[in-house]
Amino acid sequence: MSLPQILDHSRFNPGYLIGKEWIAVDPGVALDCVDPADGAVIASIGNATPREVDLAVAAARRSLSAAWGDTSPRDRGRALMRWASLVDAQREPLAALEAADTGKPISTARRDIGVVLDYLEFYAGAANKFHGQVLPYYPGFSAQVMREPHGVTAHIIPWNYPASQFARTVAPALAMGNACVVKPSEEASLSVLALTRLAMESGLAAGALNVVTGTGSGAGAALSEHRGIDYISFTGSPETGSRIQAAAARHHIPCCLELGGKSPQIVFADADLDLAIPAIVKGIVQHAGQTCSAGSRLLVAQAIHEAVASRIAEAFNRLRVGTPVMDLDCGPLINRRQKSLVSAAIEGALERGLQVLGQGRLAPGLNPAGNWLAPMAFASVPRQDPLAVEEVFGPVLSVLSFTDEADAIALANDSPFGLVAGVWTRDGARQQRLARGLRCGQVFINCYGGPSGVELPFGGVGRSGHGREKGMLALEHMSIAKTVVQYYGD
Ligand code: NAP
Ligand code: MG
Are 44 and 8 in contact (CB under 8 A)? Predict the structure, then answer.
């Protein structure tokens, strides 16, 4: 795939952004960026050591007592808006870059870059609209609650939606006046670097945004362990999330963890299946199931189990897998490791005798070096089977059945995860009971996900993490309250 112009910086001068400077990377320590569709090395990035992480944290700290610290909320908003307009002008090359680095179909990548724009614009507008409070107190006193930035915020980004996750976490942090240090995933850093370059072109103050690429165990651990940071935003696996939280606990700082899920789609007998089936299939095959909010458990009322199963089978049998440019239902998985993890989950299910309901197909002529995997749906999965319980993070749907509403809620909640739930029913009272009864961060009724949903607070409970990103609530998380009481006399 020919690489877009915007990649040139990353390709010829891979670097870390520290302050306003791009620091050149020693080629001897550079990491390869691999195209998941053919195994080709498409660029290289730096592998930061604790020294570069130190420099990035120091640059962020300095910015808080320099120009960035003096920037008004209005001007922080304007800075985000200028960045947004440069992103808007580069949508297509950014989408091509994201597709090449992650393997996702080009139309998904285009949507993701649209979401980046949504985040930048939303938080540009919000920067001077998130107010403190004046509280009623005793005579002669004034009491106020001010919102202040944490200071230096660390952002550890996963590989599945690097561009949009980057915007999702840094835009509200910058809107509130924090100085960010970002560690993208070594598996997919290119769009983050390209977006960062645009941020610099837009004139963002020195040190407000710093990026250090590298490995999780190297740069990621060094950043989350750093004594100079005041907050950590993390999206990724529950295991790494626990490490991040332990690091945050050691230096007494808050963290926000978004850790994936085993999200249920619950289909009642009165559901509109024409609406439900395509959304359910898209909800699990989007980006080959490598989505934290993937609806990977399909819970179906016994009365319509056969009808739903046959429609899911048909839909899965029609699914096609191909390169980003082919723009089919799924692309390849991100890397060999992820492919072997998902394949092992499938092989285990087959060995336990689970029945395949439907299966997609690979487009002819794909490069065998790509991490290809056909989406699969499994029928009548027992409730305690690993496939029904564990996050697979691939295009694999487990179909289970329930008897009545109470059973549906109990089954949906019988998971250590709690990120998203989809509810499909025409019964308004039932919709409300489910919305209240489900233990998770967000419930979608007769829909699943949204066009972008930047307005909607997002996060989980339990093994899905804690804290909320997106919407105005993110501004609360990206700031701290300071109470000020003044006695001015009777
Ligand atoms: P991961 O290790 O949790 O990676 C997420 C981010 O954390 C990446 O930037 C990673 O950097 C970094 N990281 C890794 N180890 C770290 C450490 N010790 N300290 C600080 N940062 C660290 O996830 P993964 O290994 O790529 O994927 C494994 C599983 O995680 C997937 O199968 C999936 O279940 C889950 N996952 C969930 C999401 C989500 O959206 N919730 C996203 C990705 C993965 P490097 O990538 O450079 O190592
Ligand atoms: Mg890659």
Answer: no
